[in-house]
Amino acid sequence: xxxxxxKKPNILVTGTPGTGKTTTSSLLADATxxxxxxxxxxxxxxxxxxxxxxEFDCHVIDEDLVCDELEDLVEEGGNIVDYHGCDxxxxxxxxxxxxxxxxxxxxxxxxxxxxYMGSKLTNNIECExxxxxxxxxKASYPEEIVVAMxxxxxxxxxxxxxxxxxxxRSWHSAS
Length: 175
Hints:
By secondary structure, this protein is an alpha/beta fold. The protein has a domain at 13-40 and 78-170: Rossmann fold. It contains 7 helices and 7 strands; from the N terminus they run βαβαββαββαααβα. It has helices spanning 21-32, 39-46, 63-76, 104-113, 118-129, 132-140, 154-174; strands at 10-14, 35-38, 49-53, 58-61, 79-82, 96-101, 146-150. The strands form 2 sheets. It has a 5-stranded parallel sheet, with helices on both faces. Strands 3-4 form a two-stranded antiparallel sheet. A hairpin with a 4-residue loop joins strand 3 and strand 4 (58-61). Helix 1 crosses helix 7 (154-174) and helix 4 runs antiparallel to helix 5. The chain is globular, with a radius of gyration of 16 Å. ATP binds at residues 18, 20-23, 114.
């Protein structure tokens, strides 16, 4: 799906839990009138999973079912997809891939406040520390559409939303 076959862009906002994906995606959707799709919520609502993972206290998503559910919406364009993983979505779906990142102390506090403990907390902190999702995005999408953005505080989020809103506007004018 090339940019010019859609009237509006698709943006993937990814990053480890606690990096501000939902906040950033919601604010960006408000600013651009693009549709926000929270994949975690969609998985729960439509039962797009293969059960529960007790160790990590979350659903085990069925990636094929998620992609089938999203395919028509993504084809239309005009979506902000919010999810912590990115390597299973087709490369052609996205015009911009945003990887939100936070400092470990910020991640630790945010995740602890959410009740993350044990291996779930450790695993997410390690993923952030080793930039696993940035590397996953760079391996899954053309590098020119992947951008890493710091998301440590309200100012970072505001700046990111402004930058992304400008990108959406420039995408419209380029298409």
